[in-house]
Structure formats: C-alpha cells, structure tokens
Amino acid sequence: MTMRTRNRGLGVLGIGALLVLTPACVPSVGDGDADSSGSGSATTAASTGEAARCEPFAPYVIDVQAEPNGLFYRADEGKLYIADDDNNRVLVRDEAGGSSVFAEIPNPSDDPGSDGLGDLDFAADGTLYLPRFGFGMPGLGAIFAVTPGGVASPVAGVNDEWRRVGLDHDDARGLLYVGTYSRDADDVYTGWVASVDPVAGVETTIVGGLSKPVGIAVISDELFVGDQAQRQLFRVDLTAQAPALALVSDQFESLDLMEATPDGQLLVLSFDTANGAGYVYRVDPASAAITTVATGAWEPRGIAFDGLSKIFVSARDTQTIVVVPAC
Q1: Are 160 and 143 in contact (CB under 8 A)?
Q2: pLDDT (tens digit per residue) in 196-218
C-alpha cells in the first residue's frame, strides 16, 4: 500500500505508561458563559440547584475497535461521537459502553483509510460536520454535513484537492472555520484558514501565513489555530476588517486538534516527538497562561470534553481513546 502521511504520521506508541496529572481544573460552567462553539455543557443538580462540580478519577482507556481521530461529546445525549479514520464512518458510543455506526462517509478510493476523516463538530441545528482528508488526491478532499438521522452529503463549493483535519462551526456566523493546507513534491507545506458557508457553498481564505494548521477553535469573536509544523498557537480577531494572525504562544511541542470549553478556555493537544509523550494543555486566552492537564505515552489526535470532568483523547494507531480527568 502507498505510504500516507497526515498530522505527524509517526509509529505506534504504547499507552500503558502511567499518566501524569496536575491539579489544574477546567472550571464548571456558570450562567452567561462565552460561546465555546462545540463543547458539551455542565449540568446542575436538580435537587439542590447547585452547579455540578468536576470530579477527579483514575484515567482509563476505551477500546473502540476503530482508528479514532476526531471526537465530539454531546452532553445532551451523554454520547461520544468518533470519527473512524480507517473505515470512513462516524461511530457513537453511550455511557454504558454501547456502540453503533452513526454515519457512513463516502469512500471514493475504495481503499480503507486512504481517504481519512478528521475533526468533528455539531452545529446548533444538529448537523454534524467533518472533513475527509483526501491526502491531496483530486476528488478526495471534502467536507461533509451529516443530518441528525445520519445521512451524509458533501458541502458544495469546497476544493477537492486541499487537505483538512481541524474545523469548528461558528453558530453565530453560520460558518465553518477550517485549517487547510497543501503539500508540494518537496514536502513543503503551505497553510491557511478558510471559512466555509455550508449553505451557500462558498469557501474563502480568511488568513494565510501558516504551514500546517490542524487545531481550530472559535471562542466568541476570536478564532484560535494551532500550526503543527511551526509549533505555534495563534489567535485571529474575526471582527477585524483584515483578519491577521497574532501569536499566543510558541511554547508547544507538535500541535494537534483542540477543543473550546464552555467557560471560554482551550484544551490543546500536543506531542513531544523526541520523548514520545502526549499532552493535554489548558490555555487561558485572556492571559495566555498554559497549564498541563495530563500527559502520557500516547500520541494524541482528537479531543472531546464532556463539559465537566472527562476529557477524551484519541490515541494514534492503538484503536483506543484515553479518558483523563479535567481536574
């Protein structure tokens, strides 16, 4: 089979090594929190009216019998949605451990894993969006809209040769923001962030100057993007007449997908290639403070947050998802 690369394309890593957790917590949600455009929200205790609190637990591993990439946790359903990278489908898993196929994504190459799937995000109307990576092959790159009933259809107006992994749907603007890049014959990456209007079928470059943008998250009027190759996290003011990249931090290892929390923070995935260690970082956009939430001997790909206590991390080439506490 032809060798394919995406994200980092490194070898298999064991996940049995001890997780190192810090006491950093993702705060519970209060009234009037910033729009996180994709995270589940914390619940309240009906009997007391008190806000639910993050509860620590021992990290554990879920065997999903799939190659998980993008993840999304729907707190309203108590279900985890999983992009199965090798089989071009979206799985759904409930709290009891039951699993089923939510949607089948077209696989034009008819070669399992050769098209690939990336990040997941739900819009407020219940539509699920996800990219098909395509590896730069004509006709394979795409973005799909999946109905609540699991019917997938390609979004019109999207270039079918560009590579995409991370995306986030901005309910306030009705747009998808997508980390997009190309790779030439000399393995040089050129990246940008595109906005996609899924209704009008229009894809527009909003900011360039990147190499390999992967993680994307919208928080209110700001877009955050992680450049994997440059190991830098940027912010973009979406209200600006001419949006531009502003550096948040260059103190990361190789970056992957990210998740906005209900209280307006960022959970950022990173991988230290030299030491074979994966990280979940919490980033405060206001202060740019970075806190390590979890680390372990796994290469992270996708991330989801239940809005309260659990952070789900896809571990590359292991058919597993690592679950770590947010506090």
Answers
A1: no
A2: 999 999 999 999 999 999 999 99
Q: CA triplet 73, 218, 257: central angle to 5 degrees?
A: 55
Rounded CA separation 122/312 (Å): 17
CA distance 102 to 297: 30
Domain 20-40+59-325 fold is Neuraminidase (2.120.10)
Termini Cα distance of the chain? 43
DSSP helix/strand/coil, 148: coil
pTM of the entire structure? 0.87
C-alpha 321/C-alpha 153 separation (Å) is 27
CA–CA distance, 324 with 315 (Å, rounded to integer): 12
Nearest to residue 251, comparing CAs of 284, 299, 288? 288
- The residue type of 249 is S
Span 2-24, pLDDT tens digits: 334 444 433 333 444 444 444 44
Residues in the chain: 327
Where along the chain do its domains lie?
A: 20-40+59-325
Give the span between the Cα atoms of 264 and 262, in whole angstroms. 6
CB atoms closer than 10 angstroms to residue 13:
19
Cα four-point dihedral sign 117, 4, 275, 14: positive
Do the beta carbons of residue 270 and residue 279 sit within 8 Å? yes
| Matching residue, tokens 């730069």 | 136
Distance CA 264, CA 305 (A): 13
Question: C-alpha distances in angstroms, 43 versus 39, 76, 117?
Answer: 13, 9, 31
CA 181 – CA 239 distance, rounded (Å)? 24
- What's the distance, CA 98 to chain centroid? 23
State the Cα angle at 321 between 136 and 15, rounded to 5°: 100
Q: Which residues contact 86 (CB under 8 A, 6 or more apart)?
A: 66, 67, 112, 113
